[in-house]
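We append the chain.
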Amino acid sequence: MEGLLNEYGWVAFGPVLVLLALPLMVIGVMLRRRGRKSADGVALTRASRRKIGDVSAGLVAVEGRWRGLDGGRGIVEEPDAPERRVLVERAPDAPAFDDGAEVVVIGLATRQVDDPRGTGYRGPSRVWVIEARGGEHRATAGGGLERAARAARGLSTVGAALFAAGLMVALATCVIAYRASQDDGVQTTQVE
């Protein structure tokens, strides 16, 4: 790059800027934006974290033990209080969980229905339905929220580094092109 700029000066400035610096900066901004959006989603999920017994209508994130039902449905219950549970509706093609696996469910608590497994006369007969479908609302194996937070931080960091690299390339291109144009105008004479 330096040889090209030394040879052509300001004429090479535009192509170097457009072909090297600008793509780095644009990709950096896009990655940083995606990382920040992901981090905001993780923060919203952490703010909406509830115990299963405290679920109410709206966005919720609950942790518990998975009990599979038919299709994409399942029951998530608190490990130390199995009478506290919610019904989770997932997409039918969602990956299956092992019975008893620890899961994190992020979704919308929409309504209450009768417990599909039935209860004794002392247990609650109605459970909240959490719709965990789509990209933002999901059910994942335990630790998924922490992995998502780390991935969001990493993506933001990579985006910021790419933007900074593009900015440094643009500034270095300016300096080299300026020096090359100054060297062209200097004439040397020998004094006898």
The first strand starts at residue 58 and ends at 68. Residues 48-142 form a domain with the OB fold (Dihydrolipoamide Acetyltransferase, E2P) fold (CATH 2.40.50.140). Helices lie at 2-8, 13-47, 144-185. The chain has a mean pLDDT of 79.
